[in-house]
Amino acid sequence: MRQRISVVSKNHDVLSEDLDIQDNSVVMRGNGQFIQRRWTIERNVTLPTSSLEATRITWKRAKNCQQNILEPTLINGLNVYVGNRTESNGPMLPNFKLVHADEFDEDMIYDKLPEVATILQKFDEGLADLDIQVEGATIKVDEYFQVETDSLVKVKIDEHLSKLEAGFFSVESEDNTEVTLNGVRCMWLENGTIDKCQQTMLFYQQAHIRRPIDSRTPLTLRQPVGLHPNVAIDLREHDNKTQCEFFSYITLPRELFVDKYQSSPVFLHGSQDLELPEYKLPADVWGSETMFRLQPGIENEIKLHSRYVRPVDGVAVNTASFDLLVFKACDSGSSSVRENPFYSKGLGFEAYFTEDTVFTHLNTTKIEVSIPAGNMNDYHFFQLTTVLCVVVSLVYLFAKFFKNT
To answer: Which segment of the chain is annotated as a signal peptide (predicted)?
Structure first.
């Protein structure tokens, strides 16, 4: 098992002050640095690697206040993807999502990937995010977290590792084209001592460009909402560039759904039943994820539908919330995106785009929808009224029938 640790500080001045390089370890004082800790495991498999399914397991904390600049776009909660090849040498596309849960399930990951047990024993799901990618015989486990101020982090090789490499960088420059990192990179020998530390400068293209919400891309939930929420996405301020397209990516709870026959999404995974109320869905149904292609220059509308929720005694309203991401996907025509040492294109909506695609996030908004619950106190009234209407209708029809004959 190999490990690579990447540390990035936004503050260039304090990088050298925070590091203490010793004979067999590097001690770093916490100053809000972002960390990616990557383990690479080679599995012993007897089947040809081309016949093995690609799997991705991700975990993202719901309360992750600051985006790790090294971290890919992950969905909140625990998610498991399985992919299949569309062509012999084609991309891995998401086939279906096995699990989506709000709680971290360590046992489920153990069952699917017992090789990562040693790593998960030290993983704290409340402090870090996780991205596990399996393709062929290789497992890559990425952990993302931010170091607390004035805490101490000690980097050294342990008995489970055959190789350790660590890089400590500061952001020299950053724009929409590329990021420049400057710092020091250390490598360890098998006996646990540091072989060498050397000055290193890295240049890479960001795959995901995250900005503050673009005022030119407003999202509104049309009023009144009712049982069929409509979300308006205004792209009238955006031009239609030949190398770019606009999309919205949505993860929906089980109370809401998309009618794929009405809306024509790019893809729809998860719950697709159009009739069942929320409380009649199987317990393992979590909701759905979907992506829509948007047209620039106009106001786009996404039609959703809410399920009936369980009736209660009295008046009540259920609140269903979901995250909606609007982004622009552009073909960069450059291999620099693939050469980003911190980024691995994986299963999820990224799998529907080419390797050189750059994603610019225009608006990420959490939307809440109120769904009224039926009042059980009115049940007998409506039942009696319905029966009375049926009886009166039958009497009227029979009266008309016999009168005419």
So the answer is: none
